[in-house]
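step=encode ok
step=design start
structure_in=
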């Protein structure tokens, strides 16, 4: 009897699509679960050890306050970093834009590290606490380096007073500090979003609705926090009070940490599920070993453990899907699997384990299509600021800091958050029959289109700015308020794209990798910054040949930055076409909610 025949003959079909014999043998087998990297998990206890209610809006509200203050601290550094590099460290425009893109990319790349530690070993609470401590240390070190080494003489970097060259030691401390900030904020962000979602039990309809609303308020809190950074702090930094701005950021981060720790007794906790990497690797190895095995039709007879919980203890079972069927070979039972009492997970995986791997693969095309949007988003912290810095920034005798124009983005987010909830959702709900209004995938597609129009608006503004340039004058006569449409459009697009991403990736990620799902949104921003940096380098390499100044030279009045914005708009149009194809192909995760996997008796004490 060959393997093809064995797989078809000995795999009986059951409710879970599993081999009943092997399911009985493996039920309760702790050794196998350890091999699969599963740790005991405890989800959504509604009361703590003192009998007091936990979770809900009361304690998620503390997390929203934490988000706002931590964001204030982060953007107190990030929003004006490009001007700090040009004015204090004397970098040219292209290098400063690239430095900011790389730094911002590192911020959000660190989100993957935080998500991995949260899902695998530390849990959400401990991960959030540790990375916030790192953020505080980075901000304190930045304040110290600015005071002792960088701002010499006092008040320099204000467009008038030049700073003295910085020592090598000062530069090393500065870069160590800002990358500590990047590491701390990056690891904290996605874990906090998932921890906040944990405060709502999605098995209860009312709390499930609140969970979706939480992500909107989470992004709302982010923008409220950045509002102070982009107005008050930016003004002080723009006038040379850099150290003061960094100290305020550090104080905000300390307050955020205190508020977070203050809710420790009332949070709902989810223990880590174990390292997902071996689980996913086992699926590919097992599928490769059975490359010539025929998968049972419609997934009937595939291996799954019995009982209410999956082999990943605490995680709900995931029902079989008909996509990426080649991975189903890993859960196909063959004759050799029947001969062992304890199935080797590197040879035979459960349906849930296979579907976990499928979910990761299915989300990747959608995620890749969001990167170009992050290229658009990162322009606000780099080229938009450099563009605004050489426009007419005066209102009477008051000069508007170029970075403060992002206030239009913030107000746009705040306004469109309410417009979306109170007008767009009801109207779209009536038209589509979906109580959520628009699906997450549709919202992300709309965000891409609005982001593309923002780049077109930025290009038009740059054309008008160049027309307002007079000889021997660095700044154009064109008012900086011409930038407001591009900021407003990006703000509107964020509500559709980034909030949609948070809901989509968190909702579609299996229970064992929820923080990873949230981190994909941040990782998209990371790669968007790196892609932006690569684009700037490529464009300058090509356009600065033959003695030409290039599109983004040191003197922007001699360049054609508008063409760079139009290039991004064109790339976004191509990306949108690909995104539509990927979104139509995508099939949602199908979790088995009929089985009770939440045990209210097992409460993780803090």
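sequence_out=
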């Amino acid at each position: 009897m060959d393997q093809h025949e064995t797989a078809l003959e000995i795999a009986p079909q059951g409710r879970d699509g599993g081999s009943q014999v092997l399911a009985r043998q493996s039920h309760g087998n702790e050794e196998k679960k350890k091999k699969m990297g599963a740790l005991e998990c405890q989800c959504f206890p509604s009361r703590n050890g003192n009998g007091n209610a936990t979770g809900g809006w009361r304690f998620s509200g503390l997390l929203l306050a934490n988000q706002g203050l931590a964001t204030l601290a982060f953007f107190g550094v990030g929003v004006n970093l490009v001007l700090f590099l040009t004015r204090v460290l004397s970098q040219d425009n292209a290098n400063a834009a690239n430095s900011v893109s790389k730094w911002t990319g590192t911020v959000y790349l660190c989100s993957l590290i935080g998500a991995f530690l949260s899902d695998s070993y530390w849990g959400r609470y401990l991960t959030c606490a540790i990375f916030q401590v790192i953020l505080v240390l980075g901000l304190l070190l930045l304040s110290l380096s600015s005071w002792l080494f960088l701002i010499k003489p006092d008040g320099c970097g204000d467009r008038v007073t030049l700073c003295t060259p910085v020592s090598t030691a000062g530069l090393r401390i500065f870069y160590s500090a800002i990358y500590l900030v990047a590491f701390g904020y990056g690891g904290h962000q996605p874990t906090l979003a998932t921890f906040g979602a944990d405060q709502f039990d999605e098995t209860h309809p009312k709390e499930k609705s609140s969970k979706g609303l939480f992500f909107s308020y989470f992004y709302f809190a982010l923008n409220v926090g950045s509002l102070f950074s982009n107005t008050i702090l930016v003004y002080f930094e723009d006038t040379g009070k850099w150290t003061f701005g960094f100290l305020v950021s550090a104080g905000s981060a300390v307050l955020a940490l205190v508020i977070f720790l203050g809710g420790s007794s009332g949070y709902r906790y989810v223990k880590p599920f174990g390292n997902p990497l071996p689980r996913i690797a086992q699926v590919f190895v097992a599928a490769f070993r059975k490359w010539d095995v025929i998968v049972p039709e419609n997934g009937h007879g595939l291996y799954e453990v019995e009982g209410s919980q999956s082999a990943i203890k605490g995680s709900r079972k995931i029902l079989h899907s008909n996509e990426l069927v080649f991975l189903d070979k890993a859960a196909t039972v063959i004759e050799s699997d029947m001969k062992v009492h304890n199935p080797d997970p590197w040879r035979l995986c459960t349906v849930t384990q296979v579907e976990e791997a499928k979910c990761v693969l299915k989300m990747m095309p959608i995620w890749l299509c969001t990167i170009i949007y992050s290229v658009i988003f990162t322009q606000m912290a780099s080229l938009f600021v450099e563009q605004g810095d050489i426009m007419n920034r005066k209102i009477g005798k008051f000069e508007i800091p170029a970075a403060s124009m992002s206030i239009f983005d913030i107000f746009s987010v705040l306004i469109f958050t309410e417009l979306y909830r109170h007008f767009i959702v009801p109207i779209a709900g009536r038209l589509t029959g979906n109580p959520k209004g628009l699906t997450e995938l549709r919202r992300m597609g709309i965000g891409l289109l609005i982001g593309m129009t923002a780049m077109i608006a930025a290009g038009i503004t740059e054309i008008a700015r160049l027309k307002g340039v007079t000889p021997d004058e660095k700044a154009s006569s064109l008012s900086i308020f011409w930038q407001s449409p591009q900021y407003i459009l990006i703000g509107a697009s964020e509500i559709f794209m980034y909030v949609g991403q948070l809901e989509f990736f968190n909702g579609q990620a299996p229970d064992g990798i929820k923080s990873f799902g949230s981190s994909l949104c941040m990782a998209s921003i990371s790669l968007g910054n790196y892609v932006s940096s690569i684009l700037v380098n490529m464009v300058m390499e090509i356009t600065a040949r033959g003695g030409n100044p290039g599109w983004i030279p040191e003197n922007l009045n001699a360049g054609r930055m508008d063409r760079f914005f139009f290039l991004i708009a064109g790339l976004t149009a191509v990306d949108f076409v690909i995104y539509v194809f990927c979104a139509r192909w995508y099939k949602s995760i199908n979790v088995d909610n009929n089985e009770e996997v939440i045990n209210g008796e097992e409460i993780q004490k803090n």
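step=design ok
step=annotate ok -> The longest strand covers residues 394-395.
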